[in-house]
């Protein structure tokens, strides 16, 4: 380790020297392919709750032959997909990488800024509009960027259904980033990465393979009594006809519905396998990284809820896909040349149940903003004082506040003190307090870790435990600092990984530095996490 650090220090003095083209200095223990699998919205307790119905070669193989971090959590409040993926790849919190949500607002122009949207980019692989994306909204570099800067021959590839997931996971220097265009079922990318799709992707698109996935029937895989969950939406139980699953993709081209079904995960896995083969990942001495994001799991969880049979069944099907992927990787790459990291971008809240005695409720953002706007009008006079409410953050109309001669900090305090009076709100804190104060522990510390001055709102709120923001068609959501949103699986598997459980607290910002350590490279520059000792101790 000291020798490696010395090499890094020497390399830093030679910053003008281009990155090495080969990988001759790498240890025989260095993985040649890192596969980071992100199962979107997977809570840690799913590993335990569904364990007896998993097969032996999927989740069980990862846990029993790898290393499970039992207490891995995110250490910030606004737990969303973009923020989670950014933290996993950069090794730091939103306060450093800048991803405070999938959208934020420009105070000067009042315009919305989408995390991965880029008006200068255009679609590659389709005539449809679905390619104006790039990672320019990510303010920190990733472990993949660091690998590419260190070993020029290394490759970084990212695959997901959702463009934001694919782009953020891929980082700034990825060789290839692919996502599915839901309008026509084609795999696409943007000209930020390439000017034309590789031939293997064109062949995949021209074969209409995606049509086959969109036409798959989703039936439950087990008798009803074998499931631990007992709620269902699309399952029909008839005393005479038995059990049927009313999840219909009667249209072969119903790609939106495909993306909220297990077939969506199957498609991503199969496309990732093709990427490994045709991009030549893991087939030489230069280490490569493949990011796979299973977005369908999040969409299934949002639609059906954490207590649904549909969600549970989707994990049994994902277990089968993982078994298939691991078998392929062991054959194609070899266990001794492989590192698999499986985790999630965030957890999930339980659905709101009308008859429950548990403290829970639905937060109506539209009603909240209307009341806040009325309050500001009463206090400050007529005017559009509220710019927007987005992702638990209140953006004030600073231009109007300054024009009318008001003190911004005083207006922020006015709003925060009023917002905390709502029964659904647990904390409300101003941007000024988050920027100037220091909160070492607790919820306020996590809220501070979600604050990035340029992108965050003037007031950040946190809802009471059990409360979720109302979104049409969404039963289970994320976005809080509570255990159900922050505690996720973290499993390490491969030739360099010992078979042991890590039972102390682990921050998900530790993932990128740990991968970097195993690859023998420096961590991403903004990383605040540290390598997990039990994982890097060969």
Q: Which band does the percent of strand residues land in? A: 15-25%
- Quick one: CATH superfamily of the largest domain? Alkaline Phosphatase, subunit A
Mean pLDDT, all residues: 92
Runs with pLDDT <50, length 5+?
1-18
Oligomer: single chain
Strand order of the largest sheet: 5-8-7-6-11-1-12-19-2-20
Helix/strand class: alpha/beta
How many structural domains are formed by the residues? Answer: 2
Rg over alpha carbons? 23 Å
- Which CATH first-tier class of the largest domain would you pick? Alpha Beta
Head-to-tail CA distance between termini = 11 Å
**Large-scale geometry:** globular
Would you kindly provide a written description of the structure presented here, covering whatever features stand out?
A 10-stranded mixed sheet has the order 5-8-7-6-11-1-12-19-2-20, sandwiched between helices. Residues 1-18 have low confidence and may be disordered. It is globular. The chain has 538 residues and is an alpha/beta fold. Helix content is 35%, strand content 18%. It starts with a helix and ends with a helix. The protein folds into 2 domains: 2-351 and 491-536, Alkaline Phosphatase, subunit A (3-Layer(aba) Sandwich); 361-469, Gyrase A, domain 2, CATH 3.30.1360.
List keywords for this structure.
538 residues; alpha/beta; Alkaline Phosphatase, subunit A; Gyrase A, domain 2; 2 domains; 10-stranded mixed beta sheet; 4-stranded antiparallel beta sheet; 21 helices; disordered N terminus; alkaline phosphatase activity; phosphoprotein; signal; Alkaline phosphatase family protein
